[in-house]
Write a structure and sequence with these properties.
It is built from 14 helices and 22 strands. It has 474 residues and is an alpha/beta fold. The chain has 3 domains: 182 residues, FAD/NAD(P)-binding domain; 107 residues, FAD/NAD(P)-binding domain (3-Layer(bba) Sandwich); 108 residues, FAD/NAD-linked reductase, C-terminal dimerisation domain (Enolase-like, domain 1), CATH 3.30.390.30. The longest helix is centred in the first third of the chain and has 26 residues. It starts with 10 loop residues before the first strand and ends with a helix. The structure holds flavin-adenine dinucleotide (FAD) and nicotinamide-adenine-dinucleotide. Keywords: FAD, Flavoprotein, NAD, Nucleotide-binding, Oxidoreductase.
Amino acid sequence: MREEGWSVVSRIVIIGGGPGGYEAALVAAQLDADVTLVEADGPGGACVLTDCVPSKTFIASSEIMTGYRHNERFGIRSAGLDGVTVDAVAVNDRVKRLALAQSADIQAKLVKAGVDVVHGRARMGEDTLGHTHQVLITPHGGQTYAVEATTVLLATGATPRVLATARPDGDRILDWRQLYDLTELPSHLIVIGSGVTGAEFASAYLAMGVRVTLVSSRERVMPHEDADAAMAIERVFRERGMTILSQARGKSVENTGSGVRVTLGDDRVIEGSHALIAVGAVPNTADLSLAEYGVQVGDGGYVTVDRVSRTNVPGIYAAGDCTGVLPLASVAAMQGRIAIWHAMGEAVAPLRLRTVSANVFTDPELATVGVSQNDVDAGRVPARQVMLPLTGNARAKMADLHDGFVKLFCRPATGQIVGGVVVAPKASELILPITMAIENNLTVDQLAHTITIYPSLSGSIAEAARQLMQHELQ
Ligand SMILES: Cc1cc2nc3c(=O)[nH]c(=O)nc-3n(C[C@H](O)[C@H](O)[C@H](O)COP(=O)(O)OP(=O)(O)OC[C@H]3O[C@@H](n4cnc5c(N)ncnc54)[C@H](O)[C@@H]3O)c2cc1C
Ligand SMILES: NC(=O)c1ccc[n+]([C@@H]2O[C@H](COP(=O)([O-])OP(=O)(O)OC[C@H]3O[C@@H](n4cnc5c(N)ncnc54)[C@H](O)[C@@H]3O)[C@@H](O)[C@H]2O)c1
């Protein structure tokens, strides 16, 4: 804590107003720095305007449809899904309205904190080899001017990767940022790419009643996620009628005027009404004059940073998706805060990825934290583990949940919890106790002694811990 009356004035320029940039700006303002944030599209960045927030809002609408689909099983009779229609314009308007409102909230917060928010673009200027860095700022509709900054934070995010033979046209061939301009639901959506983005949209459109074909380049969907979890979710997708083409690559997509024709790597052709291209993202680092300034950029154009967000050039930091460290909003925000704390001489702990929890918002959801099955199987981390299906859980039975499980990993000798996976509705809310256990070095014994609500899905987390205790005694 600083003593009363102590203040620092420091010219900080932040390029990019997503979570990496705006959270950093708030920390800088709190520390009395003179801070300018330059954002091309709107406060909140792509996270709030086009990526994370809109997709989760769309998924919230799809969950309402899922509720209608299951009501008969609970003895609730309605006209069934026949009487339920999706007003695509209303759904998408809501998505865009909430995104803009969130962006406006962030703008207000930044202004109130004293951040100078510039709507425009910025890049590095001339390297004068002095103690400050020149940043060139071009406000929308204005003249370019230069600012000398003691600290620069690059937080420019990433953009959907484009396949040259399947360029999004905003009409029938779409990237995930163009989906919300559709005025009708697709009749048959072909999703190319089964990473987290592809899986989330495939799941949400399927729930909306859309016919979905998922083109998956690997043997299973979400190849970077826990294999048991990804296979459980793939099984649910198939049971609900999704067509999944495994080990298939989208080679080209053609807009035929009335639909799309997708040619796969093995020259098979599939037809649908629309195609969603979800084949990853590329960092927004090409237009920042980084090479001229000597800022090191690694494979794929990601800015190279250390665990306190420093680039190789003193005074220049980077945070978020432009660094490729772990493309999550939560990680971007922490990298940004760490950069400012470090730059302003505050006590700062280097970024720790060990306790970052992540969630895939499919139905059911998939949440993970800590060491993974791959780490254990490859012998990188010695661990004991248990995988407990939710089918035995009383609350799951009441809610008619058949798919899902809790998996826990702990140290063999001490029982210290080191990782976990939850596949369940709202797994994003259920992963927290495991995250807290890892963060605080708790053991399965301590977790098992925690009294949980009965009946509750979280009861299965304590139950999994109990099973690992029993295992220890054998
Ligand atoms: C479909 C989708 C869903 C996602 N869902 C989740 C989720 O549920 N949870 C989660 O944690 N993460 C999610 N993510 C990831 C998350 O959106 C990103 O990790 C996060 O946006 C990264 O924040 P950032 O600050 O690095 O960049 P961004 O949010 O991309 O913001 C960067 C901003 O910088 C601006 N910019 C770029 N260049 C310049 C320049 N030269 N001058 C001025 N401004 C510039 C850009 O216009 C952009 O607005 C999702 C991603 C996608 C694609
Ligand atoms: N809920 C969340 O937190 C959330 C949601 C979406 C994205 N994200 C973040 O964004 C990151 C990137 O995810 P993503 O899914 O956008 O990208 P990704 O790179 O993880 O997945 C893209 C997939 O497309 C495949 N692919 C590439 N070319 C293809 C082709 N021609 N045909 C078929 N498949 C092809 C790749 O093999 C890969 O599996 C994630 O790791 C995650 O951190 C997070």
